[in-house]
Amino acid sequence: MKxxxxxxxxxLSILSxxxxxxxxxxxxxxxxxxxxxxxxxxxNEEQIREIADLMISxxxxxxxxxxxxxxxxxxxxxxxxxxxxxxxxxxSGIQNLATYxxxxxxxxxxxxxxxxxxxxxxxxxxxYEYIDAVTYANWGVDFLKYDWCNNNGANAREAYLTxxxxxxxxGRPIVLSICEWGTNKPWEWGKGIGDMWRVSEDxxxxxxxxxxxxxxxxxxxxxxxxxxxxxxxxxxxxxxDMLQVGNGNLTYDENVMHFSMWCMLSSPLMxxxxxxNIDKHTLDILTNKEVIAINQDKLGKQGRMFERSGKYxxxxxxxxxxxxxxLCFLNKDEKEWILDYHFWGFDIIxxxxxxxxxxxxxxxxxxxxxxxxxxxxxxxxxxGVALFRLTPKQ
Length: 394
Ligand code: GLA
Hints:
binds alpha-D-galactopyranose, single chain, alpha/beta
């Protein structure tokens, strides 16, 4: 009897270890919408309920966008150590808001900071990690974006590990989005602590250059992401920051390029534009199922640049499950790139599997254009991409 009991407890402990190791909350890059890029500090619960409704009516939820994340400035102070929401802007309370978001079939995300204050000067979680984690879990939070301002010289890995353990101790699965801007190379230690980590300073809605306060232009972030492909995989993603598609003065081709590259890079896709006045072009880009499928491919391999010619022209590849390959021509130039291309060019990069021939499909035009035996003439627009999916020919 004693032996059976010992055997049973051994099996149970092995099973729970395996379960612990397999805690993968984001097998593919998380997708959703976040308040920061369009509303900044001006947020309130009515707006967020409206956004939840719009995520359904615009088809974004059906396209895979499930997390609705409330960024900085929902919180004002602590009472007996417990974080309190702004009582005028969120008068029904965060728990009610989360319940509303859940009633739409969406998941609810919130923001805090590993420092004493958030980047916008609201109370941070430093020293309150466990009490905050329990509060979030009681409210029904599914996702925490955790920032790095006012950290008082803390060790980044330790600070994020503390919050990670606090969240895990609640028993509620809560995605941890590490947001320390790449300062301490989170790709080297973030796996197992968080589910994704930012690699750059805040994205701005421009392709090149910086604003007067700095920030990561779209091309700059692509450059930072380029060598980081070995660190991404199911459950642990390099985060190229929230999308600026539909914001600022980005042209149609720039928006297509931005979205395509975030998909090639297996980045989380968090929309950052105001859904109350989204235009058709922007919505069509964000809901292009063939492009999203490249991002959400279950193999979870981040795309790699395998060829750069000159300063402006890059060719990117992303291995997909079932032997498919995404191939992206990125033109950083201000003028178009005219190509006379033989698709066998990608043969040189040493893929695990190669087939004799592939069907070539343009995923923006939704059209098969031939196969890899042929030569093609095509034009990549200024600051744009041409994006193809190659499928082995049987
Ligand atoms: C930092 C983050 C941003 C945003 C703001 C909020 O700058 O990187 O994404 O969350 O804080 O204050």
